[in-house]
């Protein structure tokens, strides 16, 4: 059993419902159910009794949660004494320019912890809530920003804007029907099938306006470029000074609500360490959007 499992069980006890706790932790209910079962098997006793309204603690469960809360409190003290001021733990979704910058940060002798997780948006937020990592980095479309801010407030998180209103481009092959456009609106792209990363959340603006029957999700940049070579597909991407592929055309999207923001999220009571501040400044100074 790991520290984050203790935190998850404590959250269930506070919510009185595995369903409510799963929403708060950004974990699916079946996954959280399995975590409870595994932990109870490891402990050798039942922590939660199921009721029509949810769950409640058994007598052993009450003692366990009290001890677990003390362990978490002591663990936080240990973290404060450890090398946390020198090490940075990060969870981020698939953004090649973030990964490249993090590796460059490390190559310069600046330390990242072994907790460098590439995830999907809900996992990134869950990692921060469960304190698997201290910082999550994820992109948010301008149109999704207000909803994102409201959502993270509900989970006792705060955010720091790393990059604001970054230009988005429609990326197409040189023989695509849109290839000769100097600029384009989102409405002009709707009749073409979109390809995008699986990391884009289901409730993203992309998922809402493009027909999922014709859209194609891919895992990484190599797959994305392979699909784009098919003349009918296009994608929506940000562009850095290092990421432009000469095989494709990059057409600026003129709709302001489709600008991209890149945010760092962390718990509301988190005070960033010197090393974390140094990393954030490094990202801002190293990544150059076009």
From TrEMBL:
<keyword id="KW-0804">Transcription</keyword>
<keyword id="KW-0805">Transcription regulation</keyword>
<dbReference type="InterPro" id="IPR036390">
    <property type="entry name" value="WH_DNA-bd_sf"/>
</dbReference>
<protein>
    <submittedName>
        <fullName>Transcriptional regulator, LysR family</fullName>
    </submittedName>
</protein>
<dbReference type="InterPro" id="IPR000847">
    <property type="entry name" value="LysR_HTH_N"/>
</dbReference>
<dbReference type="GO" id="GO:0003700">
    <property type="term" value="F:DNA-binding transcription factor activity"/>
</dbReference>
<dbReference type="GO" id="GO:0003677">
    <property type="term" value="F:DNA binding"/>
</dbReference>
<dbReference type="Pfam" id="PF00126">
    <property type="entry name" value="HTH_1"/>
</dbReference>
<dbReference type="GO" id="GO:0032993">
    <property type="term" value="C:protein-DNA complex"/>
</dbReference>
<keyword id="KW-0238">DNA-binding</keyword>
<comment type="similarity">
    <text>Belongs to the LysR transcriptional regulatory family.</text>
</comment>
<feature type="domain" description="HTH lysR-type">
    <location>
        <begin position="1"/>
        <end position="58"/>
    </location>
</feature>
<dbReference type="InterPro" id="IPR036388">
    <property type="entry name" value="WH-like_DNA-bd_sf"/>
</dbReference>
